């Protein structure tokens, strides 16, 4: 049986200090299959950013199981997590996170140059130009990010996220720094990518954009809520049965 792209079971995250413990996530069960478009919304402090960090292997859970394409990743070392993250996950950030000292081409190529197995120069060029074509920005390959508009920079960020052919694209408030016209254009592009098979998980505060996803999850107090506002604990058994097959 084919494994889901993402399978989380009973994921918890606790931030502890000498004075107190903060339970940021409380038993998250989440399955994302290839080709899904999932949006995660909820009020500030509900755990969205923490969940996104765990999905992207930027942090590790305090408890529970996390599998990417059937591989358990919840207990990886920092170096191993970095390799898996580079190979399996693409990121699109609200603040673009492009490097102004590098050209557009080199910004997009960067993930390939950090691969565990080296990628040939010709392949890097082919993949970068293909991604630039996808976002309609081939004419900007030699420019630097600070020569581009905000909407253009976000297109470059999308191309960079796609260049490694990730299993999952994590999208963090992609329209937060854009006006409504550019925000709508970026969301249309994300929807088109999903229609062509890209698997997306997006955090957003904007209900209009959340509704564009094929699945909408609501987070509150570290728990995923069902449509009636109750925690989705009833799905735990079904998810475990999937994992055991």
UniProtKB/TrEMBL annotation:
Q: Where is the ABC transporter domain?
A: 6-244
MF (Gene Ontology): ATP binding
InterPro entries, alphabetized: AAA+_ATPase, ABC_transporter-like_ATP-bd, ABC_transporter-like_CS, ABC_transpr_LolD-like, MacB-like_ATP-bd, P-loop_NTPase
Keywords in UniProt for this one?
ATP-binding, Nucleotide-binding, Transport
Highest rank taxon of the organism: Bacteria
Query: Which CDD domains does the protein's record reference?
Result: ABC_MJ0796_LolCDE_FtsE
Pfam families noted in UniProt: ABC_tran (PF00005)
User: Would you tell me the protein name for this molecule?
Assistant: ABC transport system ATP-binding protein
